[in-house]
Specification:
alpha/beta; Zincin-like; 3-stranded mixed β-sheet; 38% helix; elongated; binds zinc ion
């Protein structure tokens, strides 16, 4: 997470109150202040605002990943008798054409942040799909037998095709399975 930029806007129309809001998609904190406010007066206020906004951001990011991990464990219990051992399950922002990736060798599962805003049953399918790769790296019949334990697999695949995120075919090598951990987007594309 990068440090937000501070932009101060002084306005004669403002008499006393100082307020702030996030602009530029959260990259900038815009501070609205009375015309007479000095930098020295604003500094401690801006510092507090910055801390508050960053705390909120950290909380939101970790909460998301924690919830995703919890959900993965629930699905692991429900569809894999709880025997899978993913080492890491988290959202990433560098996967825009794939919904997720799995590196069976290390147990790392990454889910595109785009999935976070999709219906829960689609997110669950994506988790089941990547969890199943811990047992079956390829998209063969064995793999789909595992993935189809999740009852809404077909429907979720339709949803993902519709939003342009399901590019795998059943017999091709799985594009979402990597064999090294830090290969950026998650391995063989
Ligand atoms: Zn796959």
């Amino acid at each position: 997470m990068s440090e937000p930029v501070i932009r101060i806007k002084r306005s004669a129309a403002r008499r006393r109150t100082i307020s702030a809001r996030l602009v530029d998609g959260g990259a900038t904190i815009e501070v609205l202040a009375p015309a007479g406010a000095t930098d020295a007066e604003l500094a401690p206020i801006i510092e507090r605002l910055k801390e508050r906004i960053q705390r909120r951001q950290v909380k939101r990011e970790t909460a998301d990943d924690a919830a995703l991990r919890r959900r993965a464990q629930e699905l692991n219990r429900e569809y894999f008798e709880g025997r899978l051992r993913p080492s890491e399950v988290r959202y990433v922002t560098n996967q825009n054409t794939r919904y997720g990736s799995c590196t069976p060798a290390t147990g790392v599962i990454r889910i595109s942040h785009r999935v976070a805003t999709m219906p829960a049953w689609v997110r669950d399918y994506v988790l089941v799909h990547e969890l199943a790769h811990l047992l079956e790296p390829n998209h063969g019949a064995k793999f789909w037998k595992l993935a189809n334990r999740y009852p809404r697999t077909e429907r979720a695949r339709g949803y993902l095709i519709a939003v342009g995120l399901e590019g795998d075919s059943d017999d091709a090598p799985a594009a979402d399975v990597g064999d090294t951990d830090e290969s950026g987007a998650g391995g063989a594309a």
